[in-house]
Design the sequence.
């Protein structure tokens, strides 16, 4: 995991925070050093390297996370085997819409 650059680690932590994957939250401020960020990640994930691809395996098996991998060759994260542009996705604004139409809930 040491071969991943710090901006990619911060972007991964930003996505995990937006989607509320990890508890307790991992603070990802730019003033934190890379070794402390990696130590926090290692409390939540185990590492497995196969053929130049790092796989992050959750220590808590009950978490509903996608399969998170990092390809060292292309320097990209893969979520469920699909390449994700992590910097772009992590900085994307959350979209919401307020509707004034009546809504019916059925239980």
Sequence:
């Amino acid at each position: 995991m040491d071969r991943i650059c710090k901006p990619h680690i911060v972007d991964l932590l930003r996505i995990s925070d937006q989607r509320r994957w990890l508890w307790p939250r991992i603070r990802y401020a730019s003033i934190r050093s890379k070794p402390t960020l990696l130590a926090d990640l290692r409390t939540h994930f185990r590492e497995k390297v196969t053929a130049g691809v790092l796989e992050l395996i959750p220590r808590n098996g009950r978490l509903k996370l996608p399969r998170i991998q990092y390809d060292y060759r292309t320097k990209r994260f893969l979520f469920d085997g699909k390449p994700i542009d992590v910097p772009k996705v992590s900085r994307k604004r959350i979209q919401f819409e307020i509707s004034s139409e009546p809504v019916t809930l059925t239980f």
User: Anything to note?
Assistant: The chain is about 25% helix and 20% strand. Residues 49 and 55 are 6 Å apart (CA to CA). The first strand starts at residue 45 and ends at 50.
